Input
Amino acid sequence: MKYEKIQGPKGVREYLPPESAAFEWVREQLIAPAKAAGYQLMELPVFEDTNLFTRGVGESTDVVSKEMYTFEDRGGRSITLRPEGTAGVMRAVIEQNLDRGQLPVKVWYSGQFFRAERPQAGRYRQFYQVGIEAIGLDDPAIDAEVIAIADRGFKNLGLRNYRLEITSLGDAQSRAAHRIDLMAFIKKLDLDEATAKRAEINPLRLFDDKRPEMQAAMVKAPLLLDYLSDSSRKSFELVQGYLRAMKIDFVINPRMVRGLDYYTGTTFEFVHSDLGAQSGIGGGGRYDGLMEILGGQSLSGIGFGLGVDRALLAAIAEKSIPAEDFTSDLFLIPLGESAMEMALTTAQELRAAGIRTEIAFGDRALKGAMKAADKSGARYVVVLGDSEISSGNVDLKRMSDGVLTSVKITQLRDQLRQALSL
Ligand code: HAM
Output
């Protein structure tokens, strides 16, 4: 009987060798600045009570209304695969009383998120984010720090072709004043039922409507930035001043609408110019009412989510990935049984010294093993045969130019550490 092959799920990106090394590198580079700034890891479930997202992320958003993977579990509960990370962090902070301790709570996370979007390049149904949240402090300095951490992550990747867009969605007072004028403006537009309903829940959503007729209709709409209260304006100006002081370039985009409803105050997006339609490589902002909506105290927070898949595409487009960092330093080719024993023990010693060492396994002839070494991209190759073992000397072959250096086996570790500047 011949079984049919089973295919992976649609719209899901998988990372296999050799590309997975670049993926891992990108993720580590994006996380490193958060760790360096004292953010601590939070590992959270990939599924949560559906209410967490309907209430936290908002029903006017595409994410909640069209894109959630929701199912009933065996106990009859409505469960949703997390479409984003902030609501889950808040849920955990409230549930574990972290908000009653030292503030701000500063955490980072990394993992898979799920949105049932129409798949295309850079837009997947399962995608990866790294994110941070700083909860419990309403201070423009922390807004600037959060943005700086994201920016440093992208700089770590060697990216240049991106811009940082920022705006402020103000405080409740600013939004209330703006909402009156915006609703009056929207009332005059000829909207279909679904759009009118969305506008009723969150009128700012209409700025995000991609249909050309809606874009045209919104050109003259009143902008929230013109309605900022004195304290919101001052706070936004301070954020800009801090960013300038840290030499972080930005542009103000008063029409920016984030895809999630919880945002208030400072909001931002990183947009890459080589990625086509899915150009958002990261975004975030302040969410001053979220904790309360989720049943906690009234504390504010700010954070970001960076798209690892898209950051990888950006790094590939900008050719900024140091591929040589992902390959082995040394490929050891043992010929025969006693050579294998020596290869195993030597590899132990070299790896302990930080030298990435691979062994050619299997009873391959020298030619085949050399081919494998070449393919692996290893920087050096050593062949261990009977004559090497009896003489105690090996030829260290540098793969970039084929140069051979005779080295005592006992000196191999030091010689390699020097050559690799370890
Ligand atoms: P978001 O803007 O929805 O924000 O997502 C952040 C990033 O995730 C996007 O900029 C994009 O790079 C990536 N991303 C989103 N959807 C997809 C997809 N379908 N395929 C590939 N990449 C995608 C949030 O999720 C907020 N939780 C960020 C945040 C944290 N705000 C405050 N704290």
